[in-house]
Write a structure and sequence with these properties.
The complex is a heterotrimer.
Chain A lengths: L1 E4 L3 H5 L2 H13 L3 E3 L9 H5 L3 H14 L6 E3 L2 H14 L4 H13 E3 H8 L11 E5 L3 H6 L5 H7 L4 E4 L14 H4 L1 H17 L4 E4 L2 H13 L5 E4 H5 L6
Parallel strand pairs in A: 1-2, 1-3, 3-4, 5-6, 5-7, 7-8
Chain B lengths: L3 H12 L17 H29 L3 E5 L5 H12 L3 E4 L2 H4 L3 H5 L5 E4 L7 H13 L2 E4 L3 E3 L4 E5 L14 E7 L3 E2 L2 H13 L1 H4 L4 E5 L4 E2 L7 E2 L6 E7 L3
Parallel strand pairs in B: 1-12, 2-3, 2-4, 4-7, 5-8, 7-12
Antiparallel strand pairs in B: 5-6, 6-9, 10-11
Chain C lengths: L2 H5 L2 H9 L2 H23 L4 H17 L1 H14 L3 E5 L2 H15 L3 E4 L3 H5 L2 H7 L3 E4 L2 H8 L16 H12 L7 H18 L2 E4 L3 E3 L4 E6 L3 H5 L5 E7 L3 E2 L2 H16 L6 E5 L13 E7 L22 H5 L1 H6 L10 H12 L16 H5 L6 H14 L5 H15 L1 H14 L4 E2 L2 E2 L7 H4 L12 H8 L3
Parallel strand pairs in C: 1-10, 2-3, 2-4, 4-7, 5-8, 7-10
Antiparallel strand pairs in C: 5-6, 6-9, 11-12
Helix pairs in contact in C: 3-13, 4-13, 16-18, 19-20
Classes of the chains: A alpha/beta, B alpha/beta, C alpha/beta.
């Protein structure tokens, strides 16, 4: 089984340790991993702010970068959503590109979905210890309809105690540029989320989206919380907790 | 002022620009409304006991008070008891032809004043008189056209001898029904309404159909539920077995 | 919305709302309650999901034959002795009503809750013409006395405490009333009962109008909808043209999901089907019925980007789950309709320019689409509105510059890498304890309240070299 890593712009620049954890994890599970060079961004920030023409150019570029991939694994629900749901539409005016985009959409998976649905793995051995709580990122939950697999994987780690997060399906307030266009509202929404997080007494807050982790992690450290924000990959492959 | 023709031609111009978002159909209608009407009635002739049970459960869930009597002649007793409980003395009733019983005969004179809805063509004076009585009445007694089990809803059609305000202005509404009015689902109600409108001359003498699901309510102040905002505070349903 | 309020930019209005502690508490309690009620209702209703799909299909199918349905509706209403008016604009709708009032000697009109009449600022126009409009829905009555606009589509006075309502009643009605919802409701009942009986005209909206039978449908809980359509001698219903539906069978599908979506009830206390003015033999009911079919920006969307927004049932479910609405409430949006659907409706009624800020008042979380009974894809249309704003060059130049830079960096891996290296250099003065704080320019919008991770010492691409196998 071969898989290509789509690292995402946030992963590349801010959370490379998540990418490394993912690589090690996948290799441990018998997957041959490669990393097509020249990746930048999936284009979602452009798309969400209405710059669709520009987003289409980025989409075309990405589609070509991954043309040879067998499977594409993404540590981010929103980027996976972008590729799977929006790319074909963005490239609808070029039939060849559109076909490629549809092919890419079919072979692209968010990490937890790849592990469970493609690899058929629900139990990943990990020495991780501690109580965790899980946040449902909006695009993974509603865009890709995924709420079970991350929980299944977390619950299967013997040392991991998963506690349900009240309001786990409520937005963390990131929303991409929303976080800086309406920072006060974004922060108010974040505060609500973090109050829920702290009420669980968890040691770690886990999510499958770099944007959410940036927002929630940034809020947690700013308020001096002892709760750590981690990506799912870092719980399953804890050697990469920075 | 825009005319109908102008409005519609503007609309058609816009409509011509698009085929729409996706292929879509409206709900499938019963091809023969009268046939469905009869079918539903036949079904309910069998299934009314279950429907009644469900009706009672749902009616009580929306704070309705359910009563059961053996015969129509027992209804005035229930009304009397309600009047005593509410310390009420003014009763407003549908006309006997619409209700199936004459409450003025059975209740009048026991310290209860009963006003009957007029049944003839009212003039301005008759309207004024009835409105005053309706505004003063404490208990309003009506029949029921349909009793919907799925939601505990009483469905009342307005018309001659069956004014709208009887179930609206008094603080207590009492509705009388029997097994022939029971329906199970909103879907069945839809079928009945299709049939009703297919032949209005025969079946509807009034302009309004009211679906009544429990008392009047609001939660507009701090989301605290209160009853009897403008409509009745209490709704009673009397099921008559014998009919 | 008052002129002054609209002149303050949206972020400022949002800021004011965030600082209003009481509003924050009211919003949390109310929206949480509505969310729970709706969830519970649909959890116990497995048929609900398929019915939502059907409802959506009916709305789309109706739009595809909208002209025919409107014609049929009008013919049926006229056949029953009612009058149908066609209003291209809100101004026209108002004028029709004012003219009616003048011609029929109307001095007082009782109103049942109608967002369509809010849309056209009817009350102000009536008052200016010497006609007293009396709102009778308890929430609307409260805000009318307070000279405010509704802050939620179905619970207009959600932002007021019972204490505030008690003070308001005491002040406006004379007397001293306890801050008890039961007491206050009884006060309103008594006050408004008189008005119902004395009013010359009753004004309502319409949740639906059934074309096949000429029926106007009102979904209410208080009973004022019934009063207003039975007691005064004239009934006027103002309805957006998109509210027509073909048949009674279609109506049942909407009734089965509307109240559940709005308040978690199976059905509201009253669903009232009005078919023309009073019939011969009826001792009550209006002599005259007028239906005003209103365009006011809707027609243009039949072939526009906001077509799907025409499916809206005005249930308010999207408001209750929206993280933005839950934080800032309805007034901060600044227009008649707040919340997610409100942004789309505002664009529809007032044009794209009106939503250049509001189109971004969303984290695109999708919760609205999740709960919409007719599954309107609100996030998609918000993104399209953003595109329009960009195309019409309404977005501020600083933003367009930044996105221009971002676009170039995304199009070229060399630029992207350069960006990472520059970031690593530029961030040095701001790194504290392994996090970025106190960043300048617009990045400060983030770091004022949150830390940022620094650009990694080695990006993933750089670390891949170590991970790469021969």
């Amino acid at each position: 089984m071969k898989a290509s890593i789509m690292i995402t712009c946030l992963g590349e620049m801010f959370f490379p340790e998540v990418g490394v954890a993912m690589v090690k994890l996948l290799r441990r599970l018998g997957v041959t991993v490669d990393f097509p060079p020249g990746q930048t961004c999936c284009g979602m920030p452009l798309f969400n702010s209405g710059y669709h023409h520009d987003a289409a150019l980025v989409a075309a570029r990405t589609v070509k970068l991954f043309a040879q991939a067998e499977h594409v694994v993404v540590p981010s629900g929103s980027c996976a959503w972008m590729v799977k749901t929006e790319y074909p539409g963005l490239l609808k005016d070029d039939p060849a590109l559109r076909t490629q985009a549809e092919a890419l959409a079919r072979k692209t998976h968010e990490l937890s979905q790849f592990l469970v649905e493609v690899l058929g793995v629900t139990t990943v051995a990990s020495p991780f210890q501690g109580r965790v709580t899980y946040h449902d990122s909006c695009h993974l939950l509603r865009g890709l309809g995924e709420s079970r697999h991350p929980r299944t994987l977390l619950q299967a780690v013997p040392g991991c105690e998963l506690v349900e997060l009240p309001g786990s399906d409520e937005c963390c307030g990131f929303g991409g540029s929303f976080s800086v266009r309406l920072p006060e509202v974004s922060t108010a929404v974040l505060d609500k989320k973090l109050a829920n997080v702290e009420s669980t007494d968890a040691k770690c807050l886990v999510a499958c989206d770099a944007g959410c982790l940036m927002q929630m992690g940034g809020g947690l450290t700013r308020r001096g919380s002892r709760v750590r924000a981690l990506h799912l990959a870092q719980v399953l492959e804890p050697g990469e907790i920075a | 002022m825009t005319t109908r023709a102008e409005f519609l031609s503007g609309l058609r111009r816009e409509m011509a620009k698009t085929r729409g978002l996706f292929e879509a159909r409206t709900a499938e209608r019963p091809p023969d409304a009268d046939l469905v009407f009869e079918t539903v009635k036949r079904q309910m002739a069998e299934r009314w006991p279950q429907a009644l049970e469900r009706f009672q459960a749902e009616f009580e869930r929306v704070a309705g008070v359910f009563h059961r009597v053996a015969r129509l002649e027992d209804v005035p007793d229930v009304v009397r008891a309600i009047a005593r409980e509410k310390q009420a003395s003014r009763v407003l009733s549908w006309h006997p032809d619409a209700l199936g019983l004459d409450l003025r005969q059975s209740l009048g004179g026991e310290g209860l004043s009963v006003t009957l809805a007029p049944d003839d063509d009212p003039d301005g004076e008759a309207r004024r008189v009835h409105r005053e009585a309706a505004a003063e009445a404490e208990i309003g007694v009506t029949g029921t056209d349909w009793a919907l089990a799925e939601t505990g809803t009483l469905i009342l059609v307005s018309g001659r001898g069956r004014p709208r305000s009887t179930s609206l202005l008094p603080t207590t509404h009492v509705a009388v029904f029997d097994r022939h009015q029971l329906l199970e689902s909103l879907e069945q109600v839809g079928s009945m309404l299709e049939a009703l409108h297919a032949d209005p001359a025969r079946r509807m003498s009034g302009a309004v159909i009211n679906f009544i699901t429990g008392p009047s309510r609001t939660a507009d102040i701090e989301l605290t539920l209160t009853r009897g905002v403008h409509g009745p505070k209490d709704v009673h349903a009397i099921f008559v077995e014998g009919r | 919305m008052s002129e002054t309020q609209l002149r303050t930019p949206f972020p400022q209005r949002a800021h004011a709302a965030l600082g209003d502690a009481h509003l924050q508490e009211a919003l949390t309690i109310a929206t949480t309650k509505f969310i729970g009620l709706r969830k519970e209702s649909f959890a116990g209703y497995p048929a609900g999901e398929a019915l939502r799909d059907r409802a959506r299909a009916i709305k789309e199918a109706t739009l595809q034959r909208l002209d025919q349905h409107l014609e049929r509706l009008a013919d049926n209403i006229e056949r029953l002795g009612g009058h149908v008016h066609w209003a291209a604009t809100g101004d026209e709708a108002r004028d029709i009503i004012l003219r009616l009032c003048r011609d029929r000697g109307v001095r007082m009109a009782v109103k049942s809750k109608s967002m369509a009449t809010e849309e056209i600022d009817l009350n102000e126009a009536l008052e200016a013409a010497g006609v007293k409009p009396v709102e009778t829905d308890l929430g609307e009555y409260i805000i009318q006395l307070a000279h405010e606009k509704p802050s939620h589509i179905i619970a207009p006075a959600i932002h007021k405490t019972k204490g505030q309502v008690a003070d308001l009643f005491s002040k406006e009605l004379g007397g001293r009333f306890e801050a008890d919802p039961e007491v206050l409701t009884a006060v309103a009942r008594k006050e408004l009962r008189q008005k119902f009986l004395e009013a010359d005209m009753g004004i309502t909206g319409a949740n639906f109008a059934v074309a096949e039978t000429g029926t106007i449908v009102l979904v209410t809980n208080e009973g004022n909808g019934r009063m207003v359509t039975s007691l005064p001698r004239i009934h006027v219903a103002v309805m957006g043209m998109e509210k027509v539906i073909p048949t009674m069978t279609d109506l049942m599908i909407f009734l089965s999901i509307l109240a559940r979506s709005a308040t978690g009830q199976k059905l509201s206390s009253y669903t009232t089907l009005v078919r023309g003015p009073r019939q011969p033999g009826e001792v009550e009911g209006p002599e005259e019925l007028h239906l005003i079919l209103m365009d006011n920006g809707r027609m243009r969307q039949v072939a526009g980007t906001l077509r799907e927004a025409l499916y809206c049932l005005r249930c308010g479910a999207c408001l209750n789950v929206c993280p933005v609405y839950r934080q800032i409430g309805g007034h901060a949006y600044g227009y008649t309709y707040p919340g997610p659907i409100g942004i789309l409706l505002t664009a529809m009624l007032e044009g794209t320019g009106a939503v250049k800020d509001l189109a971004h008042a969303s984290s695109l979380c999708g919760a609205c689409k999740d709960v919409c009974p007719v599954r309107i894809d609100i996030p998609r249309m918000l993104v399209e509105l953003r595109e329009q704003v960009d195309r019409e060059k309404i977005a501020p130049w600083g933003e367009r510059m930044l996105f221009g830079l971002a676009r170039r960096a995304m199009a070229s891996s060399a630029l992207f890498r350069l960006g990472a290296r520059l970031g690593r250099l530029a961030q040095r003065p701001f790194v504290r304890n392994g996090r970025l704080q106190g960043l300048p320019f617009f990045f400060g919008q983030w770091t004022r309240t949150r830390d940022l991770p620094p650009v990694a010492a080695r990006t993933f691409s750089e670390r891949w070299k170590d991970l790469e196998r021969p």
